[in-house]
User: Fold these one by one.
Assistant:
Number 1:
Amino acid sequence: ERIIMVEPRLHHVQCLDTRGLHRMAYWEWGHVANPKVLVCAHGLTRQGRDFDTLARALCDEYRVVCPDVVGRGQSDWLADPMGYQIAAYVADMVTMLARVNAGTVHWVGTSMGGLIGMGLASLAHSPVQRLVLNDVGPVIQAQALQRIGAYLGLPMRWDSVEAAAAYMLSISKGFGPHTEAQWLELTRPMLRADGAGFKPHYDPDIALPFRTVTPDTAAAGEAQLW
C-alpha cells in the first residue's frame, strides 16, 4: 500500500504585545474551506510540528491548525521576555482564530498547550466546543516544574541531528515509546541551524518568567485554572 505524505501550509499572523507586534506562525492541514477546525497546541519547549502524525490522520475530517507559540519554531521571539505568559498566548490564539475564520473549534492541548486551551475555553463566548487535555490539568506538580527548570533555556548546541535527538530523548522519557525514525522526525523541527551544527528552536528567554514562579504564585495560578 502506498502511503501519501501530506504536508502542511505555513502561515503567519500579526499579534499584539507590550512592545508592539510579533508574528506567530501556524501550520495548516486540510481543506482551507473546511468549517471543522481542530487546533493542536504544543508544550513549553516544543512546536507545532509535534502534531504531524495526528494532523495527517485527521486532515480529511478537519482543517487542522498547529501554532508555533510565540518564541518557538517559526514564530518571532518577544522583545520583552516577561510576555511569555499563558494569558498572552491565549490572546495570540484569539487573533489566530480570527485569521483562520474559525467560529468554533475543537482543541487538543499538550502540557502548556492544554493550559492555553483551558484559558481560552473558560472565556465567555469561547469558540472552544471540545477540549482534549494531554499531560496537563489544573494541578501542576512542583517536581515537574523543577525538572523542566533544570534544562529550560540552557545554552545548547549539537553537531548532528542524531546527537540532538539523543539529548532530547533523555529529557523526554514521559513521551512514551518511539522508534528511532519517529523520534528523529519529532526532533528535526526542534532544531535551528547554527553553522555546521544545531541549536534549540526556541528563545532561551522563555525561561525567565518560568523562573519567577514561587509557591504562592503557583497556588494562585492553580486556583485560576480550577
Note: The radius of gyration is 17 Å.
Number 2:
Amino acid sequence: MPVLNKAGLLMVSPANTYPALTKPGTGEAHEPDAYRPSGKVTYFRVVPADDMQGAVGARWAQKMGAKAVYILHDNGLYGKGVAAVFQQTAEDIGLKVLGFEAIDPKAQEYKSLMTKIKDQNPDVVYYGGTTQTNAGQLVKDFVAVGATGKIMVPDGCFEEAFIQAAGADNANDRVYVTFGGVPPEKLVGQGAAFVEAYRKKYGAEPEAYAVYGYMSAKVALDAIKAAGVKDRWAISAAAAKVTYEDSALGKFSFTEHGDTTMSTMSGNMVKGGKFEFVSLLGND
C-alpha cells in the first residue's frame, strides 16, 4: 500500500476489512498514515470494515441468547482485530468473556484446547480467523471433544471451502457467520441482475465476494472514465468522488478515508451443508 500510494496508483479492495488500513484511532499509532506517505488517499474499499463486523457479531450472539463466550483468534491483523472488537463489544453489552487467546493456525489439531473450553461451557465460541488459518479444524475438534454450543466466525470463513474443511456434519446447525453485506441470493435490483448474469455465464452460484470484486472493478473503471486523463493522481481523486445511487451493492459512496458508506451486514448459518441467510445485522 505505501509503495503504490507513493506512485498515486488507485487501489480498490473487495474484501480487506482491517479497520486501521483507513480509520485513524483503530490500530497502531502509525496507522493509517503509514499506508499514505503521499498524504493523499488512494486506497478504497467497497466492503464494511471489521470495527462494524466484530460489534454486530457480539450483539447477534447476545440476541441468540448467549450469556458467556470464549474468544479465539489467529493472531493476524484481520483475525485478532475482529476478535478484539467482538471482545470489547461483548464486555460492553454484558456478555461474560471466559477467555481470549491466540491459536497456532498451523497446528494439526486443537483437542486439548477444545476440551479446556468445553469445561467452561460457553454458549458461543468466537474465532477471529479465516478458512486458511484452520477454522475448519477448530470446528472439527470442537465437535470431537463433545462440546456443545454455537461457533461464530467472521467473513473470512464465508466460503464453501470452510464448510468442506469443517465437514458439513460438524458445521450444520452449529456454525454462524457474519458477513459485511448480504449474500448473493438476497441481492436485489442490479445485484440480482449480476447474480443472474453470473449464473448464465459460469453455470454456478457466485460466492459471497463475487459481487464485491465486480463493484471494485467498476469503481476503478468509472474513476478512469470520470478523470478523463491518463494520470494516476487524477484517477485516484476521481474515485474518491464516485457515488452510486443504485448499483449491484445498492446506494453508496466513499468517506474521506476511503471507506464505503454502506453499513448493511448479515448473519448466516450452515444448514444442510450450505450457508443459509438468517437475518440482517447492525440495524438495531
Note: The mean pLDDT is 95.
Number 3:
Amino acid sequence: RRGRQTSVRLRHAALTLAGAKAGAPAPRFQAPQLARLVDAVPAGERWLHEAKWDGYRLLAQCVAGKVRLWSRNAREWTHKLPDIVTALQALGMDLLVDGELVAGLGRQQDFGLLQAVLSGERRAPLSYVAFDLLQLADVDLRGCRQDARKQLLQRLLAGVPTPLVY
C-alpha cells in the first residue's frame, strides 16, 4: 500500500498541473476517447504517438479502497480480474485510470491468448497497461495536457509490480 506521504505528494503534483481542477467528486466512469482511423499520421509537436495495444480497453475506478473495472461500453469487469483489482487497491488512492487489459506482450497475435484466458481455455498472466490518469484523489485531470497526466501516472506506478504496467 502506498504511504500517506506519497499520496499527499502525488495529489500536490496533480494540483500543480495546468488545467487541474480541485474539489472533483469521487472518480466515476467516464467514456474513454477512442482512436480514429486516419489516412496519415498527424505531424507536429502537439501530437503524442503511442503503441497500439491489442487487448480490452478498461477504465479503473478506485474510491475509498473499492475498485471497479469498466469496459469502454460501461460494462463492469471487476469480478473477472481479481489480481488486477488487488493490485489497484494496493495503490491506496482514489483515482480513475484508462488502460488496456492484455495477455503476453499485448500484440495483435496475443489477442487470441487474452480471449482464451478470459474464457478459461488457457492459463497465462494478464496485465493492465495504464496509459492515462484522468483523476487523482479529488483532482480532475481531464483538462490537463496528456503528456503531463502520463508523467504523473508514471510516478504513481513507479516500482509497482505486475500486473500493473505503465
Note: The chain has a mean pLDDT of 92.
